[in-house]
Amino acid sequence: MIPADPAPPPLPRRRPSPRATARHLRAAVVLVALSVLVAGVAYPAVVTAIAQEISPGSANGSLLIVDGTIVGSSLIAQNLSAPYLFWARPSLNDYNLTLGYDGAPGPTTAALKALINETISYMERYGNTTVNATLPISLISVSGSGVDPDLVPEAVLVQIPRVSAFASNLTGQNVSIAGLTALVNREITAPLLPGLGVPYVDVLSLDLALLAEYPALLQAVGGP
Amino acid sequence: MFPLESLVDVALLIALVLAVAPWFGAYLGRVYLNRPAFGDSLLTPIESWIYRLLGTSPRETMRFKEYAFALLLTSGVLFVWMYLILTLQAGLPGNVLGIPNMSWDLAYHTTASFLTNTNFQHYNPQASMSLWGSLLSLQVAMFLSAGCGLAVVAAFIRGFTRKDGTLGNFYVDLVRTMTRVLLPLALLASVLLVLLGLPQTLAVYVTAHTLGGGTQTLYLGPVASWQAIDLLGTNGGGWYAANAAMPYANPSAASNLLETGLMLLIPLSTPFAFAEIVRRPGEGLPFVGTILIVLVVGIGLFLFFQAGPNPSLLGLHGLAQNSLGYPTFGTESRWSFSESSAFQVVSIYTNTGANNLAIGSLNPLAQGVLLFGMFTQSTPGGVGTGFGMLLVFAVIAVFVGGLMVGRTPEYLGKKVGKEQMRWSAGLLLLHPALVLVPLAIAILGGFVVFGGGIASHAYLFTSVLYELTSESANNGSSLGSFADNTLFFNLVGGTVMLIGRFYPMIGMLAIGSIFAEQEVLPPGPGTLRTRSATFTIYLTLLLVIISALLFLPVLALGPFAQLGF
Fold first, then answer.
1. What is the pLDDT of residues B102-128, one digit of tens each?
2. Could you tell me which residues come within 8 angstroms of residue B382 by beta carbon, excluding any fewer than 6 positions away?
3. Does B319 sit within 8 Å of A198, measured CB to CB?
4. Using an 8 Å Cβ cutoff, are B160 and A69 in contact?
């Protein structure tokens, strides 16, 4: 049984007068205008002033500067496809910051399988799989941002034989597997606190460290 | 392979937010009760000055129609302002990238999207939005839309405490939300995000000369301040197309955890604000319980589905045997599988709609888990409106429960009658109608082009279903798999968002005003005790079953079909 509603109390019938509407319009316009000034202008300006004071490095994009030249950002992957460098994760749009993940194939589609097969054969062409004949999936899978600069350590370690071979060949020096392994291990970023995040390697920083450690390689490349 | 032990930090985060929520919720309640509260000495004079400018005063109080009129008028003024900025942004100073004016249909969609707290983006920010175009229109709406959500739910809750039919003063509610909640919290969160490494500059980009000999444009901007209000107000629009997956918007596991907490803070505190306003300690707990049950089960199911292998990748030549596929494809390396997943589920379940991974590459069943969060809209849902929807579910639960045991349905001493149920049923049916009717038109009218095999068909169907659900629920996330910047999807999507936002808000105010006209009845022997574990479980089941029944058939055509069932 649906209970009957209580009798509503008699309400004073009030029609909004034009004057009342004008009052509302004034309030709404002033409220939006104030919000534009405070939330749209003052708020970002104040935070920018604070940020440039307390953390100028990261506030300006965590840029990596070598000899006065901006070579990239420690937070953003770039095209590092030279065979004597460590590679970051592949990107569907050549490490363009603006495109994100749009247009990637669906998780169960044939197109995804084709994309992954193509990436695997590319990797194999350069001998990335000589360690144990398999690839960690993070090395062949596209990231969410398309510019993920980091890799799990095993996906970096698997590249060492390739880097060693190409770099030794290029420089005529012995860029040894042991030396590269030590370099990679130095570049592993440990979690800030135990259990907060996972260990990873920032690949661009690793490559800069590689070039710094083997100046002959830097000369062969022609400098950044 | 998966550091499930890092779920510990996610659990600790939720525990921390829950520890803060009663305190912050009580503060929130005092803000809407206009009671003395922290910060009065500084803020009261400023607010008085603003009220004089607006031509209003806290002593003026509004009934349903006037409150709704003020809400719609303010939103309308903001709509016009945003639309003008977006369609004229090319002439704004500092447009160093030469961003053109937005087309009229995309500007309509974008304006509706940010005005309704949805933040669905049919455009690529760095190609379509200039610096001041973003700040003067979109960022203002990120504050005001969240503020309107909180103001409306405060008015709705006041209905339970009043007898004279009034709901409060919309302008006062909105001003106090800005000065006492959103601006101070956003400032604090911005500074924390800056310390965790987000860019914050008025420079739009720098050019890097890469190791490969090419150049790379590094797009910057006031990202930290954007991201703070983006998540705190459960907006979810990205400064970048990749949203919170972009390292500049979310550079580390620590920032990821902080951003997860920002999304949860206000939605988990609102039930406590409710208890404070209705002056019944503990009455918010059934809502907190319901939210936690659905949210935690959602995270658990998401982890379960995502941890499984992607069958279409199994047995690929040259792939390491421990590589499972789903957890890595489309996700980022700098945080763990469970941290990534927790952010994503929280983002969808709070109707923020930010993403720190590629939703389009998830296990189809995990996509289904996310869709379910948008079906309920209320566990916990967006800032303000999510709790309002949960309160509507509670009213329905009390009514159904009362009928089942033959008692007069009453909630907090107010009778639940035919009029409230008419509005509540309308609000329940609106969401599926706004999703399914446009979905049918889009599919049957040929507005999306199907191709490829069955899996591709099901994927595209899921994408369109996801897009419309996201717009109707004011969520804003998407699978990003088809071209949606078309006349059809801009006009239909914009309209779906506007109706999906403002009709429920008006409904909540209407229900509140019906309650506000009644006397408060003393509790009798026949009163259903709502402050109990039984009611919590009953409310959870009712909410889950109703949401599932409304949408289950389309889940079969979308996510389930992707798996080839």
1. 999 999 999 999 999 999 999 999 999
2. B117, B146, B149, B234, B267, B350, B351, B352, B474, B475
3. no
4. no
∠ CA(B215), CA(B218), CA(B223), 5° rounding?
A: 180
pLDDT for res A113 = 83
CA distance B292 to B294: 6
Asked if A101's CB is within 8 angstroms of B242's CB, the reply is yes
Tell me the per-residue pLDDT of B168-221, one tens digit each, with 9 for 90 and over.
999 999 999 999 999 999 999 999 999 999 999 999 999 999 988 889 999 999
Beta bridge mates, B209: B215
- Nearest C-alpha in A relative to B189: A47
The interface predicted TM-score of the complex, written ipTM, equals: 0.95
- Rg of chain B over all Cα atoms, to the nearest angstrom: 23
DSSP-derived secondary structure for B534-551:
HHHHHHHHHHHHHHHHHH
Residue in A4, A31, A61 nearest the CB of B199: A61
Distance (Å) of CA A206 to CA A80, A82, A159, A185, A209: 11, 14, 12, 10, 5
Q: Which two tokens stand for residue B37?
A: 């509260």
Minimal Cβ distance to A98: which of B127, B208, B458 = B127
Contact B199 A55 (CB under 8 A): no
| Alpha-carbon torsion (B173, B179, B183, B185), positive or negative | negative
For the record, the structure tokens of A123 come out as: 């990797």
Q: Taking CB atoms and an 8 Å limit, are A109 and B218 in contact across chains?
A: no
Chain A residue with minimum CA distance to B195: A55
The pair of three-digit structure tokens given for residue B317, joined into one six-digit string? 């030549």
Mean pLDDT value of segment A182-211: 92
Q: Are A147 and B311 a contacting pair at CB < 8 A?
A: no
Confidence class of residue B522 from pLDDT cuts 50, 70 and 90?
confident
Tokens of B453: 């095999």
Whether this model's pTM surpasses 0.90: yes
Task: With beta carbons under 8 A apart, name residues in chain B contacting A4.
Answer: 417-418
- Predicted confidence (pLDDT) at residue B228 exceeds the cutoff of 80: yes
Per-domain residue ranges for chain A? 20-60, 63-221
Question: Where are chain B's structural domains?
Answer: 4-562
What confidence score (pLDDT) does residue B404 get?
86
Among B183, B222, B325, beta carbon nearest to A48: B222
How close is the nearest chain A Cα to the Cα of B515, in Å?
A: 10
* Residue B565: other Cβ atoms inside 10 A: 9
Question: CB distance A109–B452 less than 8 Å?
Answer: yes
DSSP conformation class of B178: I
